[in-house]
Amino acid sequence: MYDKIIIGAGLYGLYSALYCGRKGQRVLVLESDPTPFRRATYINQARVHQGYHYPRSVSTAVKSAGYFERFNREYDFCINREFNKVYATSAQYSWSDGKQFKDFCRAAGIPCEELHPERFFKKRMCDGAFMTREYTYDAMILKDYFVEKLAELPNVEIIYGAQISAIEKGGDSYVVTAADGKIYRSAFVLNATYAATNQILDMLGYEKFKIKYELCEIILCDVNDTLNEYGFTVMDGPFFSIMPFGKTGFHSLTSVTFTPHTTSYDPVPTFSCQERSGGNCSTFHLGNCNDCIAKPETAFPYMANLARKYLRDEYGFTYNKSLFSMKPILMSSEIDDSRPTVIRVFSQKPTFVSVLSGKINTVYDLDEVLENE
Amino acid sequence: MNKEKNFVSAVVYVHNAEERISKFLEMLVDVLDGNFEHSEIICVNDCSEDSSAAQVKKFGSGARSVSITVLNMSYFHGLEIAMNAGVDLAIGDFVFEFDTTVLDFDSAEIMKIYYRSLEGYDIVSAVPDKREKLMSTLFYKVFDRFTNLTYDMRTESFRILSRRVINRINSMSKAVPYRKALYANCGLKTDTVTYSVKNAPKIKRDKAEKKYRGRLAVDSLILFTDVGYFMSITMTVIMMLCSIFMVVYSLAVYLTSNPVAGWTTTVLFLSVSLFGLFGVLTVIIKYLQILINLVFRRKQYSFESIEKITK
Asked: Looking at residue A373, what is its pLDDT?
């Protein structure tokens, strides 16, 4: 009998494990991959959000800004601050223009200094460029920190390669059955699986999140010295970002139209590549896209052309490698592009909680749930 | 097979083309897929009232390597602005513009104009060898007569633009309502390739498009040629000469015969005022001409959505 069972060893899972472990609780983390941080925590733009990304959702922006300082302070060792972050608004097809972006920054209370767009971008491509304050985190350094801290706690156990085949509610506890037949019990289960969240909920027959799934590609690029000290994000529509990927020395390249390769609108992730995954992945158990044999061909030529259409020629970058991961997107957030942290409590005593959040620094939203016994 | 390394985009104008769009896209995808490593197609759906958009979507969801995007315009914008919107969205090193989905050419013509542009032409247009419609001939005649451009203005089915020419045009005036005039003005090397029309299907032109073309022709002539200015200036000069003649005539009548009292003063007054009035008009017309030359009316487009079609 554990005090808490946490499903998923991403940032949200390990943060919770450490939080509860430090209070002396007996915690079990179940992870299907061989090591932690192999999916969304690692494979994303590595932004520590301060809200710039959400010019049409001040509420999301204000919330991210609030956690920004705290995350940078507490995880200072994995933060890359050594670059200038430029946000720009595209002259065409943007949902917000330069002035609106500036007004938004003022409303959200985040720093933003106007620059001349043609310093970075080709003529007439952007109608506003702004120096902002945004950092990126290095997931692998953060992972080492969590692994090290958790190793010091004998009351926290992490099982890798654990496949969950069933979860049942039995009296005053939940019973989790693994594929190898082992059975774990706890009065508190936290579902921190991100893209597999509905598959877990499905086992219990609980109401699933209304999400769509995107198979996303993050491209890691080698960059020249001119680009090295900059991170660029062109907003607010079908554009791109190229920015340092933590402290790895790579820049990550992503675009709104070409980063998602395939989309599934089914309640549980359903993709044609699952048949070709060699048993790695199914609609019942989402495999790791980055380790999968059926991962798609890179969209680098598309993203690169998009970026080169905007960026001046002196900012050079070349392909190094691609990372793939599955991203669930709440359907309600399409219009205002907000990314709320959704925490849903399905039952109490025994407690079952699911958390879904698209941002790394809103991890503190969990505190409230973990306190609540 | 050695495919071309250049990234090309194809912008296709789609307005009420449900019966031919699938066939057209099939041909286009075959050409792009077979010749280029990477390419994209942008279908500009200019507020079609039929199932054109659905046809494109259905076609696009059949897995292919070419990326297909539908740009849905909010309301009927007409060919020129809709195509500008599409080209703005394109990311290719070279951009094909297909003004129509009527397939009266052999698919090999597409690569022909591409190779021609590699020889150093920033714009290469494909021109059908059939006789133009009377009205079109007249329009291009008048256009050529009243502009001093080297660009050979003719009916074109599709063309290719280099990224260089798109950048050049971006830094010129975005507000131009007629692309061909802009291309003609861009100052880069252009060329045309003539193709022989094959199995030209009889296509009934859409009502909205027909009306749009008429309006566009008048606008283009007024904006890009000196036709309006030339006409009005000729008229005012003629009228001014008439006024001068009337002054001389009335004075002659006054001196040689004996007109009714007051006739001379009346005619003199009228002639002098008309002369002045036409003088003022000439100045105003000149002003307007200069204003038109300085700023074309800024035309913005509004789009409803951009859909990236995934497999």
From this structure: 58
